[in-house]
Amino acid sequence: MPNLVQELNSLDFSVYIGGPLQAAVQAQHAASMSQVSFIQEVGFEDDGSGGKALRYVDFDFAKSTPNPHFGKTADQLADEGLPSDTDVATQFNSTDVSIKVPFLTMLTIPALRIEEISIDFNAKLTSTETSNVSSEFAASAELGINYKIVNFKASASYKRSSARGVSVEKTYNLGVKVTALNDEIPPGLDRILTMLEDSIVSA
Hints:
Structural class: alpha+beta
């Protein structure tokens, strides 16, 4: 009978368990480098002198604001020290506004993080005893006639052989479950984005 314990001990568990873990570490490293590459390629642009400058998005729009002098009389304008030709007939004033917004503050920065790894490895060893039996039968006969003398000769042979052995069937199942989520951005990057939001300029 085979030694099934020895068969199990011969398995290289460092490959079955360490392999998926190493792949997860490499995937986490690739995700971090992807975040750095995303910030460099999307958030910055060439400044024309070989350096990098923060990329902004310009918004131009017309902003309507209530006219504080709407409906006032000439005497009220004089009391406030305003000229008599101040517009009092228009209820809303339109003002052109331009806003510069850092591009990074408008995007979702990828921050993929592996939260959980489940490795399920099952080894199934089945020992089977085999027995093969074979039989062979052969026969021959000769008949001769010569001057009323009859000669008859017959022969037969029988052979039986058997073989026994043991075979081991091996079945391996490896299941890896990886749970990943979009993690919160690092505190340092969060502070930078907050400062960028404060740098939004409107004119």
